[in-house]
């Protein structure tokens, strides 16, 4: 193997664009440089050949999500994250990706970005691969320079976010001024996401979460903060679909990719309503928190409800409960079932709650309860005899259903 007497990438290039052009000149191939979240930082100019994936990256200033997903599925990005050696990538026609070579720009074990070299008219030789590693070392110093002051900026951003979340910055003009100081584009409408893991959010997990948010391209994260086992995001939906559908789509893909790419599961997610002013961020945060509370209290039947707008009647249970408390209200029919179950070791209370929760579907209810259909019918008949519940009355059934949920939400047995 040839040993290089001089490093063509030593010295100061003034900008990443100049460095990209230098790499392109040395290797005679088109070059792009990205950050760790696949946002375009620089690309070489004056080359004749390219491919659709590179064109889309330059136009959108970031690698398209479908390309990133394909690179994950083919194991390219995991290999780049584990090694500083260049990785050859074959053509992936369905996403418009031609043959290329990539290398990670690293500081120890931390990936700062990537260099991509498109093999249009030539294939990189072993010597070219070594040159590409030297180029990555040169790019590292430039990316580290770009990071100077980043930690302090992030601390300032988190401080601003917490003030907004807690209502300690109520004036819209003041918030907009702070966003401008931090070079954050004030995009509205926006919503607060809460992503809750089983374990505490470490700096590594925080980076993984922000990486997925950036790559997903359904939302634009304005501010973020980690709080114990929760990751909080203030984000604006991006795309032609309705904003709330984009928010839901992000949550669904987040669950999938955290499990597939980072082996993290058992995640809960919630987001509040869209707000048209930053002074209402606290409201969206409280709404997202209430969604999580419902998920945790009611479990499986509500885990698919992530947006505050999806809660339906659950949005107002706390108000109904407060009124009931003031009036010392008790549902006598439910109390009768609780007393009877305690005395006879039966499960009539749980049976009726399950039956109503499943929209009175006999087949589903018997499956969930693990009992025969005839047993379920007998129990429902016994419930009617004990309580005089009219199963044909929607008013009675709705009230009983709400009381069941409030008993669980607010941990009230109300005997």
TrEMBL record:
Family matches, as Pfam families: GGDEF_2, HTH_30
Domain PucR C-terminal helix-turn-helix stretches: 348-405
Cleavable signal peptide: none
Membrane spanning stretches: none
InterPro entries per UniProt: CdaR-like_regulators (IPR051448), CdaR_GGDEF (IPR041522), GAF-like_dom_sf (IPR029016), PucR_C-HTH_dom (IPR025736), PucR_C-HTH_sf (IPR042070)
Family listed: Belongs to the CdaR family.
Protein name, per record: PucR family transcriptional regulator
Annotated source species: Fictibacillus phosphorivorans
């Amino acid at each position: 193997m040839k040993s290089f007497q001089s490093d063509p990438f030593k010295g100061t290039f003034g900008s990443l664009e100049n460095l990209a052009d230098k790499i392109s000149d040395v290797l005679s191939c088109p070059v792009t440089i990205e950050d760790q979240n696949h946002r375009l930082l620089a690309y070489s100019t004056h080359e004749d050949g390219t491919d659709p994936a590179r064109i889309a990256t330059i136009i959108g200033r970031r690698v398209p999500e479908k390309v990133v997903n394909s690179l994950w599925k083919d194991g390219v990005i995991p290999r780049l994250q584990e090694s500083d050696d260049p990785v050859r990538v074959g053509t992936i026609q369905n996403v418009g990706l031609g043959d290329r070579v990539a290398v990670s720009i690293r500081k120890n074990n931390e990936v700062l970005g990537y260099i991509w070299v498109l093999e249009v008219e030539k294939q990189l030789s072993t010597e070219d691969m070594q040159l590409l590693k030297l180029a990555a070392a040169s790019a590292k110093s430039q990316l580290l320079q770009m990071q100077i002051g980043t930690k302090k900026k992030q601390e300032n951003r988190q401080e601003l976010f917490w003030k907004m979340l807690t209502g300690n910055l109520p004036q819209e003009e003041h918030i907009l001024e702070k966003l401008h100081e931090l070079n954050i584009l004030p995009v509205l409408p926006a919503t607060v996401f809460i992503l809750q893991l089983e374990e505490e959010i470490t700096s590594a997990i925080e980076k993984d979460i922000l990486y997925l948010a950036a790559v997903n391209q359904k939302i634009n994260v304005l501010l973020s903060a980690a709080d114990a086992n929760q990751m909080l995001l203030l984000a604006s939906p991006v795309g032609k679909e309705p904003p709330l559908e984009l928010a839901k789509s992000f949550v669904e893909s987040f669950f999938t990719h955290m499990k597939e790419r980072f082996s993290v599961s058992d995640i809960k997610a919630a987001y509040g309503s869209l707000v048209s002013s930053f002074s209402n961020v606290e409201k969206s945060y409280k709404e997202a928190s209430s969604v999580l509370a419902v998920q945790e209290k009611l479990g499986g039947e509500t885990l698919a409800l992530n947006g505050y707008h999806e809660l339906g009647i659950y949005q107002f249970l706390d108000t109904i409960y407060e009124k009931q408390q003031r009036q010392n209200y008790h549902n006598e029919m439910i109390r009768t079932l609780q007393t009877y179950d305690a005395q006879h070791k039966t499960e009539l209370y749980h049976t009726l709650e399950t039956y109503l929760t499943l929209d009175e579907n006999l087949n589903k209810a018997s499956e969930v309860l693990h009992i025969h259909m005839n047993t379920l019918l007998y129990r429902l008949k016994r419930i009617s005899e004990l309580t005089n519940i009219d199963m044909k009355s929607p008013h009675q059934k709705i009230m009983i259903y709400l009381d069941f949920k409030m008993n669980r939400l607010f941990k009230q047995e109300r005997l």
